[in-house]
Amino acid sequence: MTAAVVTGVGAAIPPRVVTNDDLAGYLDTSDEWIRSRTGIASRRWVDPGMSTGDLAVAAGELALRSAGIDRVDAVVVATTTPDRLCPATAPEVATRLGMTGVSAHDVNAVCTGFLYGLASAVGLIAAGNAQTVLMIGAEAFSTILDPQDRSTAVIFADGAGAVVLRAGSPDEPGAVGPIVLGSDGSLSDLIQIPAGGSRQRSAGTLAPPEDHFFQMRGREVYRHAVERMAASAQEAMVKAGLSMADVDKFVPHQANNRISVAVGERLGLVPAQTVSNVDHMGNTAAASIGVLLAEASVDGELHAGERLLLTAFGGGLTWGATTLVWPALTAHMTVLPRPVSAVAV
């Protein structure tokens, strides 16, 4: 059976660092309040003029370099913040990477986007429609945040993480294991942007300004996130024929530190097994797992031969999990330069 094998990893983050003290300057919050509830001390936000596509292209270039190739058969971009509502961002990203003509499409599963995008890439390879796929999770989430909503503004951030996959054998290092995905649309209002879509537009009513921003009912999301991430992780391990004793590193979506700790405890994992960068990256939604994989690899926190357990939860509601043995590769990560427009300001 053909498997999808990770052969390259790259990540790109914006240059602008936003600290908790920066946010406390205009929000009713403090560094202590944010740290105690989220584990976040700082995050990266795009400067004016920088888009999700810019981040995706930079991460994609680095993942291709990591894999030692300059072209793939398909490009998948997982994002909640496309450059435009129409068309998808992936075709333009592919063209900017010098790959006009290849298959390219977007996936939107909010914070589960990386795993949904990974499943899409795996499916293309398994079906024989592609031998190589570039999958990018990318977000400019700060562009959809209400700057006065401390429940979301302190958590979410921007960045892009990418992986290159090729057709290979299931027993190779880097082979993606069974991917467990799920959803529950009856709870779609827990994480949403109410305005801007066909439902609101066809109603013919003017939406209040706050409805054009991202909204989240945090307390309810926390409970569902812990339950769904833990359950899908356990299911993915069973489908892979593994037990929790086989896990070397736990790589959860960086929702916030409390969720990662709670999921790890439910799975019986010790804190030292959990890989995290939420303290200085925040929650980069669909990009978070990709950025985390790249940064942990660059920093030497991930080692070839280690078995990883990945899990995520996002709007939809959506959730998912998978496993893989980390391959021997050289990951790359970069901080983008400030756009000329931002420098001028």
UniProtKB/TrEMBL annotation:
> What does the record give under GO molecular function?
3-oxoacyl-[acyl-carrier-protein] synthase activity; beta-ketoacyl-acyl-carrier-protein synthase III activity
Q: Which residues form the Beta-ketoacyl-[acyl-carrier-protein] synthase III N-terminal domain?
A: 106-185
Q: What is its EC number?
A: 2.3.1.180
Q: Which domain of life is it from?
A: Bacteria
Q: In which pathway does it act?
A: Lipid metabolism; fatty acid biosynthesis
What is one GO cellular-component annotation here?
cytoplasm
InterPro entries the record matches: ACP_syn_III_C (IPR013747), ACP_syn_III_N (IPR013751), FabH (IPR004655), Thiolase-like (IPR016039)
The record describes the protein's role as:
Catalyzes the condensation reaction of fatty acid synthesis by the addition to an acyl acceptor of two carbons from malonyl-ACP. Catalyzes the first condensation reaction which initiates fatty acid synthesis and may therefore play a role in governing the total rate of fatty acid production. Possesses both acetoacetyl-ACP synthase and acetyl transacylase activities. Its substrate specificity determines the biosynthesis of branched-chain and/or straight-chain of fatty acids.
Q: What is known of its domains?
A: The last Arg residue of the ACP-binding site is essential for the weak association between ACP/AcpP and FabH.
Q: Which family would the database say this protein is a member of?
A: Belongs to the thiolase-like superfamily. FabH family.
Protein name as it appears in the record: Beta-ketoacyl-[acyl-carrier-protein] synthase III
Species of provenance: Actinokineospora fastidiosa
